[in-house]
Amino acid sequence: MPKNKTHSGAKKRFRVTGTGKIMREQAGGRHRLEVKSSKEMRSISGDVQLSAPDTKKVKRLLGI
């Protein structure tokens, strides 16, 4: 029986915690960094939990 493949784009963007939550990075931390304040960058740098409606879709892409 063939195995299901993990979605390559999803595995680069999301990670799964030990309790099964899906974490993602916040947008806006890759470019135009000289314009953004240090306070703004500290808030962007942290990972956040994926919203409940998206979690089901992402888990299917990751094969969980």
Quickly describe the structure.
By secondary structure, the protein is of the alpha+beta class. The chain is built from 3 helices and 3 strands; from the N terminus they run H-E-E-H-E-H. The longest helix is centred in the C-terminal third of the chain and has 11 residues, at 52-62.
Features of the shown structure:
64 residues; alpha+beta; 3-stranded antiparallel β-sheet; 3 helices; 39% helix
Distance between the termini: 18 Å
SS-derived structural category: alpha+beta
Estimated helix fraction: 25-40%
What would you report as the Rg, rounded to the nearest angstrom? Answer: 15 Å
Spans of at least 5 consecutive residues whose pLDDT stays below 50 are none
Overall description:
β1 and β2 (22-24) form a beta hairpin. This protein is α+β, with helices and mostly antiparallel strands. The protein is built from 3 helices and 3 strands. Strands 1-2-3 form a 3-stranded antiparallel sheet. The model has no long low-confidence stretch (mean pLDDT 95). The longest helix is centred in the C-terminal third of the chain and has 11 residues, at 52-62.
What is the strand and helix layout of this fold?
Layout: H1 8-13, E1 14-16, E2 22-24, H2 38-45, E3 48-49, H3 52-62
Antiparallel strand pairs: 1-2, 2-3
